[in-house]
Every structure is written in C-alpha cells, then in structure tokens.
Amino acid sequence: MNNQTRLKVFLVDDDALYLKSEEIELNGQNDYTIETYASGELCLQQLSRNPDVIILDYWLNGVDKSAMNGEQILDKIKRFNSDIPVVILSAQEKIEVAVNCMQHRAFDYVVKSKTAFMEVHKILNYIKNTLYSKS
Known about the structure:
By secondary structure, the chain is an alpha/beta fold. The protein has one domain: Response regulator (Rossmann fold, 3-Layer(aba) Sandwich). The protein has 5 helices and 5 strands; from the N terminus they run E-H-E-H-E-H-E-H-E-H. It has helices at 16-27, 40-45, 70-80, 95-103, 116-131, and strands spanning 7-12, 32-37, 53-57, 86-90, 108-111. The chain has a 5-stranded parallel β-sheet, sandwiched between helices.
C-alpha cells in the first residue's frame, strides 16, 4: 500500500453523475485517496501512479461508443500488474457477466443498487485490513 492509513483508489465510470456520487461517498470516509477517470483508457494511462484498488464500471461506452468495456480494461490492468485488486461495479445483473469477470480475475463484482456504495466500502475495508495489513 502506498500509504499506511489510506488506500489509493481509482474510480472508473463513464457516467459522470455516478462517478461523482461514488467519489463523494468514498471521500466521506477518511480511508481513501480517490482518483477518478471517465474512461478505462484514461485509467490505463495512469496505472504507473500505483493504485491500491480500482473500482471499474463494466459498460464504459455510454459516451464513447468505441471505448473498451470493463472486461477488456480489466485484462489490461492485470497484464500491467496482476496484484491490483479490481472490483467491477456495474448495472449489469446477469450472473454470466459476473462469473466471466471473476474468471478474468476481478477481485469482486458489485451490482449498482441502493446498497452498492456500502458494498464497495466493505470490500475496500477488507482489502485494506486483510491484504495490506503488514504491521
């Protein structure tokens, strides 16, 4: 982890309103340093900034129809650094999509819902307390 007390979290979503809501929600917790990206391609360009966790939307072509989807971005992130936990956060509720993302080495899959931010926070706490506790 880059900092003993804060996780560096990349949030990636092409829905500007949802991305801002996510950022506000997670900034309310003092456990994270947040960086936001409106496309997977922008996120990939910044991987050298060493995020501890990436929260990645599945459908990333709402604005740019030629944009890569979350699964494609996930594969590229894992090629860059297979140790970065990537949580897919998506409105896609099909179990096949979730299973496929897990097969592509997503850390977890969360469906966008009323409780999604709470689920993401739990996952981030787990990552912080379990995977990165080297005390």
